[in-house]
Request: fold
Amino acid sequence: MTDDGSAPECFEDYGFVYGDMHVPYRVERKAIASDKLRKITIRVTPDSRVVVSAPEGAQKTAIHEAVMKRAKWIHDSRQSFNEQQTYVQPRRYVSGEMQFYLGRRHVLKVEENPELTEQVKMTRGKLLVSLPKFQDDKPDRVRELVKDWYRIRAQQVFTTRLEHLLPQTRWVKEIPAFRILSMEKQWGSCSARGTLMLNPHLVKAPRDCIDYVILHELCHIEEHNHGERFYRLLGQVMPEWRGVKQQLDGMAELLLNE
Reply:
């Protein structure tokens, strides 16, 4: 998603012990206006890094206390991400693999059917790929067909959700232009001109996760950074966004896997 545009002034690396495990964390300090209060926030990234954002003048003891209060949550989040990475393997695009659509699992089935042209369709819990004849490059062809199918579905779903969500964002007068763009680490972004870029892999996530990303980017049309006003807007249109974001972050490694 869109960066806030203000780079941290410095990094500080610390750590703490939880059980028999040493957990490193990085503190990013940011300068803020004297009349604005900024809380210490903590996030665990999908690659298990712990990042703490803090005001420039925050005391080290206060930062460490904030981290220790959430030590169990940090440990559990890192463990969850590590477990996901252990089981996530590159897809081979063969029958029996799992594919996802709107948060639900579907079994990939590849069949040879001389009576049909190449096609992909969803039927009874399966994502069925039909090929008129199997060739040596079958997995590569299946991969391309599945990617195209996701892009088409993404265009349809994102258009529908944008139309549904637009009344909640009073500062956006009409449905913004958007592009489907594959990204390795981002679900979406917003250009300075208000054009949205949405990752086709997002259509694999539950609908409330899709709504969160779209609303996040619509908020960037009004506020191009991640300042206090941006999060106030996001909280107005989706009060539960933190929980939804955490859910989506937890699925990222699995859904972005190709």
Summary: Residues 2-9 have pLDDT under 50 and may be disordered. Residues 98-255 form a domain with the Zincin-like fold (CATH 3.30.2010.10).
